Task: structure prediction
Amino acid sequence: MRIVGICGSPKSDKSSTRYLLEQALEAAAESLSDKDETVLLNIRDYNILHCTGCDSCVRRKPCPQSVNDDMPKLEKELINTDGIIIAAPSYFTSVPGILKDFIDRSRHMKMNGSKLRDTIFGAITHAGLKYGGQEHVIDVLNRYALGQGMIVVGSAGSPVKDGNFGSGSLQTDDGNWRMVKDDELAIRGSRLIGKRVAEVASRISPGE
Ligand SMILES: Cc1cc2nc3c(=O)[nH]c(=O)nc-3n(C[C@H](O)[C@H](O)[C@H](O)COP(=O)(O)O)c2cc1C
Result:
């Protein structure tokens, strides 16, 4: 069993999004056995060129951009993985460009045998403002996963206390600012996503 988390923040350190993803992967690991693996990949560590729209992937030909960048490395990490969690900060209520480049370029995996099909998927987001586009970012990520044939799961926590995904903000209810480590609901939601991805992945691939 292998669960991969992708952090979509371009920040090198002090990424709030990465902190929430770490929480999710920690919770996933707690639901798995010792021989299972959780891996965190930072999208910023990979050189991913833009999709040029050449449609080589539709014709099942190699992507010309993959000759010059790290996309094959990233694809290798994701193919045959049981669960994927993508965490993205809200950038104008959508995902940062470096993550969108990955999303667009991953069309090659879809066009060449739906390689991410049936992978369990969960989404996490973090924004500056309390109402900073979190639901839109989650929607972008979940629709991406559906497009890849992945199986999207929500947090499935308490029906009266928890939202459906991992989501936080720097801004507090009274308009002040906080560190992500002080955002209890965001941590709880992210951990629930990690746990849920691990649990459903274990059910789909029992005994792996
Ligand atoms: C280009 C850019 C666009 C942003 N757009 C939004 C936005 O639409 N709404 C919002 O609440 N915060 C926005 N932010 C703030 C980030 O979402 C926020 O700082 C988040 O915590 C960053 O996460 P990170 O530390 O993981 O990178 C934006 C930040 C940048 C750099």
Strands lie at 2-7, 37-42, 83-89, 120-127, 151-152, 166-169. Residues 9, 11, 15-18, 89-93, 126-129, 132-133, 170 surround flavin mononucleotide (CB under 6 Å). The two ends are 6 Å apart (CA to CA). The mean pLDDT is 96.
